[in-house]
Every structure is written in C-alpha cells, then in structure tokens.
Amino acid sequence: MSADRDLVTAVLAGDVAAFERLVVEHHALCWRIVVRIVRDPEHAHDICQETFLRVHRSLSQYRHESALRTWIGRIAYSLALRHLERQRGGVQLVGAPDAGEVFEAVPDSAPGPHETLASAQAHARLHRAIDALPPLQRSIVRLYHIDEMPISDIADITGVPTGTIKSHLFRIRARLRGMLDDPSERMHDPA
C-alpha cells in the first residue's frame, strides 16, 4: 500500500511519468475487466481510456482504503457496465442457482497429441461457457479463477458483498458444470 500511496502522491504533485507508470501498471487489469463485460475490443479500448481519465480527475478522492488496483478496477467495472446498459437497455446480473463445482485436470506427464487436442478443446469449451455467462458472473469467475484476485477485492470492484460473491462463485461453478456436461442444451441458455 505504501507503493500505491507514493505513486498517488507523485501523480497528484503533477509528475507525468508517475501517471504513465500508474497507467502501465494497471492497464492490463482494466482491459481484462472491461473487455470481458463489453466483448468489443474497440469499445473496451475507449472505456479503458475513459477509466484512466476518470482516475486522473478523481485521484484526489482516492482514500487508500483499498488497493489502488481495486479502486481502478471498480471505476473500469462501473464504466463497462454503464456502457453495456446503454447498448442493451439493461444488464442481467444474476443467473440460475445450481450446485456443484468445475475442476480442471492437470496431467502429470507430458501429453501426447490426442491429449493436447482434447485439452485444447476442453479449454476452449470452458472459455465459451464462461463467455456465455451474464456480465457480473463472467467478471466474478474470471477475476477469481483466472486473475486470482481475492474475494474481498472482487467485492470492492463490483460493489457486491463478499458473501454474495461466494454464492455467485458456487452457482457459477454449477452452471458451468451443467453447460460443459451437455453443451448442446445449455451453452446458449440465457438464464
């Protein structure tokens, strides 16, 4: 947190290089959050730019109550959702409750070509299933499982309580299991 505090202090003092460093350090997270929600690289690029413009304008309001990346992530998340709401006229944020979990098997020896192909296909199916989730669920599962972000940071970014994040993760795993068990029936299910 002291690195965040030093960086913020430098930016607020007018250090242009410090702001460039802030953007470089946090752009990848911003991009991942935004592009997963809006799914359009061109719009995602614009929203990321808007995110950092807002960060620059609002940095004096940053209170160091959470990590800087969490604060920036929250801004990116909010802007992406607003964009999606304008584009679609509303956003479905919750999915159908289910139970179960999804585990990814990791081979303990070098895979052969058939195993490599099967693994690539399973990986692609999993990512298609994740992409079929509503925006909030898609964001939560990727931030938690792919970006390995703590639940408390996800809660700060999304504005959803930690208990609800845990509940969403449980339901998302069940939904993904259902989608992967029978992709012909569940892959395009909007619920």
UniProtKB/TrEMBL annotation:
What are the entry keywords? DNA-binding, Sigma factor, Transcription, Transcription regulation
State the InterPro entries in the record.
RNA_pol_sigma-70-like (IPR039425), RNA_pol_sigma-70_dom (IPR014284), RNA_pol_sigma70_r2 (IPR007627), RNA_pol_sigma70_r4_t2 (IPR013249), RNA_pol_sigma_r2 (IPR013325), RNA_pol_sigma_r3/r4-like (IPR013324), WH-like_DNA-bd_sf (IPR036388)
Span of domain RNA polymerase sigma-70 region: 22-88
DNA-binding recorded as keyword:
yes
Q: Which CDD domains match?
A: Sigma70_r4
Q: Where is the RNA polymerase sigma factor 70 region 4 type domain?
A: 124-176
| Protein family (similarity comment) | Belongs to the sigma-70 factor family. ECF subfamily.
State the name under which the record lists this protein.
Answer: RNA polymerase sigma factor
Organism of provenance? Lysobacter korlensis
Lineage, top ranks: Bacteria, Pseudomonadati, Pseudomonadota, Gammaproteobacteria, Lysobacterales
